[in-house]
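Last lecture ended with a question: if I hand you only a sequence, what can you say about the shape of the protein? Today we answer it with a concrete record. The protein is DUF262 domain-containing protein. Below, first the input exactly as provided, then the predicted structure, then a couple of comments.
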Amino acid sequence: MEEKDFNNLDGQEIEQEDTSSGVLITQPFSPNDIKLSNPPMNLGDLIDMIQYDWIDFHTEYQRNEDLWSPGKQSRLIESAMLGLRLPAFYFEEVTRRHWKIIDGLQRCCAIRNFCVDESLELCELEFLDFNGKKFSDLPFDLKRDIRMLPVTVNLLNSGVPDKVKYILFKRLNTGGMELKPQEIRNAVFQGKAIELVKELAVNSAFLKATGHKIPTKRMQDQDFVTRFMAFYLLGYENYVPDLDNFMNTCLEMINHGKISEEDINHMKKDFTRGMELAYEIFDNDAFRKRESVADNRRPINKAYFEVIAVTLAKVDENDSDQILAHKELFKTNLITEMNRNRSYNYSFSGGTGQPDNVKRRFSRFAEILRKSINNETI
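The predicted structure:
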């Protein structure tokens, strides 16, 4: 398939999509499932918990510690010294002595650096004359006032169902660096499901088929893999919006043993086979929408990835041989359909989470594949 330019039109490797489902979702859980408490605490309590390693700074959120400059950290401490209330903290209670940070990581880092490790010397203060001071250098009454400052802590209690936890994490994620859905999944669905996602994300056939172009930063590669797993294991025919919930259902079923080990092993083998077949057919154009052989190469399209990856993963060996024998016709048929069928084309970019669009893109792609195997044009 010839092309004028192998560079992307917009410099991006992943095409933007609108995942809206167009359906009002009623979440399948009771308000009684949400166990959020507000224990009365002061800053001293938080300092003590940090000192005794009860606060987990190393979660699976793909966020870095100490992103704030010393000046910004110092001004947070200055606010506490002035008696100003700090923004609310959000934690998940794993056990009584193990809390995970949901929101407030950088604030906790500043408190740890100044009050516990004393690695922070105050600087760039705006009101108080304590530049160059460490916590131990402060007068006793000021250290006492810092410790006595009331803080608002919202604690998500242990035992909350994973799906509920995911939604709460998403809504409570109020920090400056908003978490991506896959980052939240990696925190919520720890266990077999996430280990499987990580394993497939470094699969050599996947990396080759995508040209190593899907960023690992912010877990975008794992988001692609999770979409594949959901549609492969649950089937597009059983899709229920929204897309996030569909993917989460798959991960939850894996963790709870509702998908057999045999099915998982089949999926892993088929994933590799599907990626290899995609590369043999499309080469470095795999998973990129094309409306003309003369077009510049476009970014990778998530919805196109899920359709191609799942469909090719499920074809049998004889069909694989036939696809390769007619791959030029197959690519021509795909381009023809993209041009003549606007609703099919749109299903890969707009409202990709709508049930009609999900069924349309999967079913029509399968029809195009079948006709191409039979050496028929569309």
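Comments.
1. The longest helix spans residues 261-282.
2. The chain has two domains: 35-159, 164-171+174-373.
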